Fold these 3 entries.
Entry 1:
Amino acid sequence: MTIEKRKNIRRAMRYGAWIGIGEESPLSGCMVSDISETGARLVLENPKELPEMFNLLLSGRGGIYRRCRVVWRRDNQVGVQFQKAGASAQKEPSGKEVEPASA
């Protein structure tokens, strides 16, 4: 039997999202496999090419997103930890202020 060590419960889901690495790079698609208040498991084609830090866009226009840090990589999956925002509002990749996403 595996003992769960996470502080926050993860909810299973299958939700399409996008990975934003920088303004000059095209967005790449991924699937959110499970999510909690503090992190998520993502399924993507080539997790080895993913940088340690990136934006996970949860809406088609990028208005809802999370800044992520990779904590593990396996096969076609990565585990990410959501980085805390310094203020109540975050800036999306375009520089527009938006309210933080609620997971």
Entry 2:
Amino acid sequence: MVRLPLITLPLLLACALPALAEPPKGCIDVQVGQSRALAYDCLTQQLQGADPRAAKGLREQLDPVKQMQRRAPNQMGLATPAATSTRMGGSFGSSAMPQRP
């Protein structure tokens, strides 16, 4: 009868260790349809964390200026050479009046 508690003690410790472990450090974002809910509290904790390299990488990803620089010109409403040549038609490079309005 004395051996039963000695055998069950390691089993109980093995079962309790995953519950005592630290939770994963990833952030979970939820997207329903077109709307997206970001985990701002988790991102804030990561930005204030001990690893300055991770914080710098997150700041660069969340920087609106960097996001704007990565977008294509036609997504920002700017004219591209292909769109301009389609609009100008045969008069591209020879006239200021477009072939198509």
Entry 3:
Amino acid sequence: MPKHKTRKAIMARFKITGTGKAMRRTPGRRHLLRYKSRRALGASSHDKAAHSSVVAYLRLCCPKAF
């Protein structure tokens, strides 16, 4: 039976915490920051927890991460 390889592109977009949660980046922090409100920029500076359906897909694509 062949080994199940980790998908590196997916692992670059998500971070697995020590407790097993998958964290994602908040979009909207790349450019045009001067036109966004300070409140929106402050809220987008923190990582968010990924949705449960995404976590299920992550478990399939990256079995060694969990």
